[in-house]
Design goal:
The protein has 4 helices and 6 strands. By secondary structure, the chain is α+β, with helices and mostly antiparallel strands. It has a domain of 108 residues: TATA-Binding Protein, CATH 3.30.310.80. Strands 1, 2, 3, 4, 5 and 6 form a 6-stranded antiparallel beta sheet that branches. It is rod-shaped and about 185 Å long. InterPro entries: DUF2242 (IPR018718). Pfam families: DUF2242.
């Protein structure tokens, strides 16, 4: 190989190496993007039991046209299909997990998986027998269409999950209004003291009147100066 050929080949090798290193770096970047932050994008806490939280999530999915394939006391799964155009198809799958947190509280974790499908057309051929030549495959102009998954990724849009959690909160069981406090029992009224009853006055004892003894007639005559006869 001449020197000029070596000179021309070297830049080509350098470009290939740079391209390979770039592809490797892009693969590394996709993995490094996972930050494991604690901004609660995929979780919320609710003041209800896990079973009640998952039931609220199930109703929220049903209200938006999702097909619920699984619904238990601690997990719910639902899917919804979309067709942006004639040759593509998308499917969104939500997975909800409900975990107890304390006595009357639960954590709800949600993740959404988005799959993209493309329509793939494949031509079909038919075999035709031609005597001594045997069979010959000839295209007949028909084709078989099939959907092929071309992409799959976890939804990372914070607003998407925020809207779901807000909708889910609308289906939580309503807290019963607290009963009004009972009024304190009224203090027993003190009995009024009975009016003093005056003792009955003793009955007046009649003073006995001294009886006047009858005076003999002679004595009475002497007393008034008459002479008895």
């Amino acid at each position: 190989m001449s020197a000029s050929s070596n000179v021309l080949a070297f830049p080509a090798l350098v470009l290939v190496a740079i391209g390979l290193s770039g592809c490797f770096a892009r693969k590394q970047d996709n993995l490094v993007k996972e930050t494991f932050n604690s901004d609660n994008t995929y979780s919320r806490s609710y003041p209800v039991q896990p079973g009640q939280a998952c039931e609220s999530a199930r109703r929220a999915l049903l209200s938006q046209g999702y097909v619920v394939a699984k619904a238990t006391a601690d997990a719910v799964e639902g899917t919804k299909n979309f067709q942006p155009n004639q040759d593509s198809h998308e499917q969104l799958e939500l997975r909800v997990s409900c975990v107890a947190h304390g006595q009357d509280e639960s954590w709800v974790f949600v993740s959404a998986l988005q799959d993209r499908y493309a329509l793939k057309k494949s031509a079909t051929s038919a075999s035709v027998g031609v005597g001594v030549l045997g069979s010959v495959s000839l295209p007949v102009g028909s084709s078989d269409d099939s959907l092929v998954r071309v992409a799959s990724s976890t939804v990372q849009d914070g607003d998407f999950y925020k809207r779901f959690f807000e909708l889910m909160a609308q289906y939580l069981p309503k807290a019963k209004p607290a009963a009004p406090p009972q009024p304190p029992p009224a203090a027993a009224a003190k009995p009024e003291p009975a009016a003093a009853v005056s003792a009955p006055a003793p009955a007046a004892v009649p003073t006995p009147v001294a009886e006047v003894a009858p005076v003999p007639a002679a004595a009475a005559a002497v007393g008034d100066g008459t002479t008895p006869r």
